[in-house]
Each structure stands twice: as structure tokens, then as C-alpha cells.
Amino acid sequence: MTALLSSNLIWIISVLVVFAINIIALIYIPRDRKPTAAMSWLLLIFLVPFFGIALYLLIGNFLLPKKRRGERDRITAVLGETTPDTQADDPRWFQRVVEQNHDLTAMPEVDGAAMTLIDDYQGSIDAMADAIDQAQKYVHIAFYITAWDDTTRKFLKAMEDAVQRGVTVRLLADYIASRKIPKSDETFAELDRIGVKWSWMLPVRPFKGEYQRPDLRNHRKLVVVDGVVGFVGSQNLISRDYNAEKNIKRGLMWHELVSRVEGPVVAQVDAVFHVDWLIETGEDLVDERVAASDIPRAGDLRCQLVPSGPTFGTENNLRLFLSLIHGATERVILTSPYFVPDEAMLYAITTACQRGLDVQLFVSELGDQGLVYHAQRSYYSALLRAGVRIFLYPAPYILHAKHFSIDDDVAVIGSSNMDIRSFSLNAEISMMVRGESFVAQMREVEEKYRTLGRELTLAEWEREPAKSTFLDGLARLTSALN
Fold this sequence. Notes:
The chain has helices at about 5-30, 35-45, 50-60, 70-80, 90-105, 120-135, 155-165, 175-180, 185-195, 245-250, 265-280, 315-325, 345-355, 370-375, 380-385, 420-425, 435-450, 460, 465-480, and strands at about 110-120, 140-145, 170-175, 195-200, 215-220, 220-225, 230-235, 255, 260, 300-310, 330-335, 340, 360-365, 390-395, 395-400, 405, 410-415, 420, 425-435, 455. By secondary structure, it is an alpha/beta fold. It folds into three domains: about 5-60; about 65-100 and about 110-305, Endonuclease Chain A (Endonuclease, Chain A), CATH 3.30.870; about 315-480, 2-Layer Sandwich (Endonuclease, Chain A). The strands form three sheets. The protein has a 16-stranded mixed β-sheet that branches. It is globular and about 80 Å long.
């Protein structure tokens, strides 16, 4: 066979293989996938076929192994049979949201909660440590990132003291996120030393038979003490600069928002931990289950916890956010460090402006993740033109808080960003709260953001250089890959 014939044969085979890849991609990728995500995958495969198909095989399927599915059923088993328990004096549209959340998660609306917002980074970690110091039976902790450093030293000391008092302390940490933190081995060796029972969440260890799509992560952050006190919010258990050399060089520091929770709804936070612990360890904490009816009232707030993630398959957090925005009648105020909405979210927000609502968005002036930062910026023009007021939290801080408020009596706080990753790929928790006193606290936090930051205007944004807007558009295309 001549060299020319060989080269032509290789070229023909390559063309046929690429053609076959494209046909197969057109058949399989659009199935059960949003059009934007399908188009992004297809574009990638058409432009760089072999790389695109390899990446798709690695992260294109967001289904978890069978043992990790059915989270709703496990939550139902922990909570027992529940009804939505809508309150008669809730607005009808809000009752429908409660019913929707219950249908998706098995979590009912419960009355009698008290919640206090903590927007001081060290103060929130110390508040959690102080609560652990009061523990008598057990402490349940789950963090996307767990680290032992000067910022968290008091927290780990509180865990150690609790263990020495005979309190059972359990901790879950996301495998990939916590493992990549400097000196992670020392952190978990310290947990072993002080007697904490701990386990990885979503470990990726194929040689041990533990594998799923590697970018599916458990992003939840929660603490429960004796089933009566809880903490939910955006904060990880780590130094404010995440102990990362690149952050230290840039002087970056994270700003968070955490809520201390008391009352019957703490049983729902604990139920999420029970399910995650069962999935990761196989241990059913049936003897430690506390029913919401057994927890005394602590206030007059009505709450409903909404867990979400690929184990549900229904994007519970996205549905919650959309329903609340569509139900708003006066104002919508959003805070998210990573704001990359899908079409439904973008239309809900801009339509709220067209209905005459006051819509505001708080984001960071700087970004710590390049692709997400540029994808987020690609939406600013559409938002500003619709009438959304965008406030930029000042450098060197990364506004990592995740919350939003609707009118004057409804709010959400939790671990979920408003981006495609949090909607589809991460396990998250979002606490929906109805009560003017809680929203008043959130208004104070929002006013701090407004005072410290600055408002981005459409005139300023239109002066952005073409190079930046090109990068924004390119990042927007890749953001849809899920």
C-alpha cells in the first residue's frame, strides 16, 4: 500500500468516525436535557469531536449510582408521612409554593421557628462552636469544605470537648472540595484524634468501587445540635481566604451569611443530614430521630427546608426560586456569588421588572472563578436593560452569601447559588422563611451590601471593552454544559 493510499484511507476513516460521532451525539445528547445544554454539548462535539465526546463520557451523565438515588423517599422515611400543612392565613399563591415543595421533597411547612442572621465571618463560626459547647446528645455537621486552621480552631476544640463529654459528633465533608485544600490530611487526622465520626460525601475512588460523575458535589452546609438548634447558610468551615495561595496573593476574602435556627424546622435540617449520613456510611441513625412535633416552638416564623440535587432529578431549588419570583408583588432582591441563570430564571427576573417590581441583584465586583465570572457578566446587559439594579460588592471581598427576599415577608437562605451547577449538579439546601421579622433582618444585611458596594449602570456597562464582552459570551456558551 502506497503512502498516499494509506494517508487517504486514514483521512476517510477519520471523517467517517467523526460523522458517526456527530450522528450518535444528535440522537442521544438532546434526550432529557435542556435545549441550551444540548446545544452547548453538540457545538463542542462538532468543533472538537474527540475531545468533546471524551468530555461528555466523563461528565455528560449526571445520574448518580443507584444507591444514591431516591433521596426524597429516604427523607420521607426519616420524617414519616407528612402533609404540606399550609397555613390558612398564607396567601394562596404561597400555599401553592408550599405544596410544590412538599410534593418534590416531602418536607412540610412548619410553624414556630426563630432565626437570627449572622453576617460576620469569624462570628458565625464562633456561634456554631458556642452551640456545640452546649450539646448534650449529638452534633451533626456537614460542610462542602472542612479545614483545620486558625479560623476554625475554636470550632474543632468545641467538637473535641463535646466528644470528651460523651456527646456523639458526626461530620460529613465533600471529598473533592475538602481534599484539595492545603493540609487536608492533617485536618482529618485531627478529627480522628479528637474522636469525631466522619465520612466523605460523594467520594471519587474508582479502585474502591466508589465512582460517579466527578463534578457532582455535595455543596450543603449545616450544623445541628441535639435536634433543637441548627445553622444553615453559605459558609464553609475554613479560613476567610480559603488557605489558597492565589487568594492570598490577590488579597481575596470571602463574605458569608449564616442563620442560626431554632424550633421544629430543625428536624428537617437534621433529616437531610440523616439521609446523607445513611447514603455515605450505610448507618441508619434511627435512634436519634427527632420529630418536628417534639421540638418546642421558639418563635413565630414559618419555614420549609428544600433540599435539592441530582438525587431528586427535579431541580427543586430552581423551581422554588421561580415560583417565588413569579409570586412577588412588590420587590425581588437577589444575592448570589455565582449568578448564571437559565432561560426560565432570566425571564422570571426580567418579567418581574416589566410588572413594575423593584428588582435588585447583589454580586461581587471581583470573581474567583474565571469562567463563571465571565458567564455571569454576559447577563448584565439584558438585566440592566430590563430595569434590574445591579450592585457590586467591593474588592477584595467575594460576596459568597446566597439568599434572596420577596416583598416584605418571604425570604430564602441556604447553600444554593443561582447558577446551572447549583440547580442541576450540586446537592444543596434552601430554607424558605415566611415572616416579616426575618425579612427585616435580611433588609439590614442588604442595606450593608448597598452601602459598601456601588451600583453598576447601563451607561457604564456599555463602555466595557470588546475583549471582555467576547470572553463573557464565550464563557456563557460553556456554562450550559451539564
